[in-house]
Amino acid sequence: MGRRKRWQTWLESRWVSPAFGGGVLLAIGICFFGAATNTMAGWLYVISGLMFALLGLGAILPGRSLRDLKVERQQIPPVSVGDLLRVEVRITNPTTKPKMWLQCLEALPPALGIAKPMGIEIIPPQKTYNATSHYRATRRGVYRWPGLFVRTASPLGLFWSRRWRSLPAQAIVYPQILPLRRCPLIDSLQHDEQVQWQREHRYEAATEGITKALRPYRFGDPTRLIHWRTSARFGTLQVRELEILTSGREMIIGLDTAAPWLPEQFEDAVTAAASLYFYASRAQLGVRLWTASTGAVQGNRVVLETLAATEYAETPTHEPPRQTPLLWLTANPQPNTQLPQGSLTLLFVPAGSTTAQAGVAQLLMRGDRPLTEELSQSMPRI
Fold first, then answer.
1. Which pTM value belongs to this model?
2. How far apart are CA 60 and CA 119, in angstroms?
3. Which of 239, 249, 245, 238 is nearest to 199 (CA)?
4. pLDDT of 113 higher than 80
5. What angle do CA 60, 62, 67 make, to 5 degrees?
6. Is the pLDDT assigned to residue 206 strictly greater than 50?
7. What pLDDT digit, counting tens, does each position of 262-293 carry?
8. Residue 245: beta bridge partners?
9. Taking a C-beta distance cutoff of 8 angstroms, is the pair 221, 242 a contact?
10. How far is residue 316 from each of residues 2, 51, 312, 319, measured CA to CA in Å?
11. 3-state SS, one letter per residue, for the chain
12. CA-CA distance, 134 to 31, in Å (whole number)?
């Protein structure tokens, strides 16, 4: 069956492949021609000739129907594991005749599943059609594929023809982020009790704090920040700019991507790193992510893209920071004595292992594996 499919695809890509109706008509035409040869009946020659002429038109027209189409790819928005990945292309018919019975078939990487044909019934003249398909993202990663096939059997439906369109695509699937309500590991790293005032330029994003200044209202500002007394005095809406109270502490979540991992363990560690990063960010810590290939990075989108693309057993190009405390995620049971003072290690061990070391917290993310008491309330099982 696989060989037949490959042979059919090869024929469609280079010329045409007979559809079911085309195959039946071809068999009937051959039978009529054979009967005409044996009986020398002219009407049988006429019927067989008409059938072969119809088959010839059915083989030529599909390729011509695809020739003038313009295909453009829409940008694929990033999604998280478990979400639907939206793949959309725009097909424009610049001709004065309608294009009917089209299919678009993406050359998806195997990790995203089997490509679903995007069917199009008709594209009117001088019009554009948006063909959309959705795929369930089951594994994080950065996926790339070179393009898609446009396929049709129009107008007679006797032969299929497909043409390749080079439209490079990139889809980013972020790791899952668990909604942590509390995390003693992050909280234990907050050893510095000093509090400083951090002034930021985006005061409109703040919802609490002490008023720093007043400014005119801009579209999109929260109404709860409007200072009504001053607004009434000036006759225009005035908005409070706030100074945000944040802790002056910093930390780095270090994912030991240079170490050898088991695939399941590494996926658990990536999920843990993403969840811990966003928990620390919500706690207003100066948090960064470190991997062996990228070094320390910061920013929600940059961190998610880094975690989507990272792999284990990477060639290390950056050394772990030596000044800032780390939350070190590793599968290496050997203690890292080079970590800064105040750092913690999260050791991912295989199922059934009884490894236990002083100062090492075990984090296992699967529901069939035990969680340590320290983490059982901070990270739900999946």
1. 0.71
2. 21
3. 245
4. yes
5. 100
6. no
7. 998 999 999 999 999 998 888 888 899 999 99
8. 197
9. no
10. 42, 68, 10, 8
11. CHHHHHHHHHHHHHCCEECHHHHHHHHHHHHHHHHHHHHCCHHHHHHHHHHHHHHHHHHHHHHHHHHCCEEEECCCCCEECCCEEEEEEEEEECCCCCEEEEEEEECCCHHHCCCCCEEEEEECCCEEEEEEEEEECCCCEEEEEEEEEEEECCCCCCEEEEEEEEEEEEEEEECCCCCCCCCHHHHHCCCCCCEEEECCCCHHHCCCCEEEEEEECCCCCCHHHECHHHHHHHCCCEEEEEEEEEECCEEEEEECCCCCCCHHHHHHHHHHHHHHHHHHHHCCCEEEEEECCCEEECCHHHHHHHHHHCCCCCCCCCCCCCCCCEEEEECCCCCCCCCCCCCEEEECCCCCCCCCCCCEEECCCCCCCCCCCCCCCCCCCC
12. 45
| Percent of the chain's residues with pLDDT above 90 | 44
367 confidence band (pLDDT: 50, 70, 90): very low
Q: What is the pLDDT of residues 17-68, one digit of tens each?
A: 989 999 999 999 999 999 999 888 889 999 999 999 999 999 999 988 898 8
d(CA 19, CA 27): 12
> Hey, how many other C-beta atoms are within 10 angstroms of the C-beta on 239?
22
User: Quick one: angle between helices 42-67 and 20-39, nearest 10?
Assistant: 150
Torsions phi, psi for 361 (to 5 deg): -95, 135
The amino acid present at 234, given as its one-letter code, is: F
pLDDT tens digits, one per residue of 325-347? 888 999 888 877 788 887 888 88
Largest CA distance in the chain: 107
Residue with tokens 């990270």: 379
Q: What is the residue-averaged pLDDT of the chain?
A: 81
Which of 95-99, 181-185, 230-234 is the least confident region? 181-185
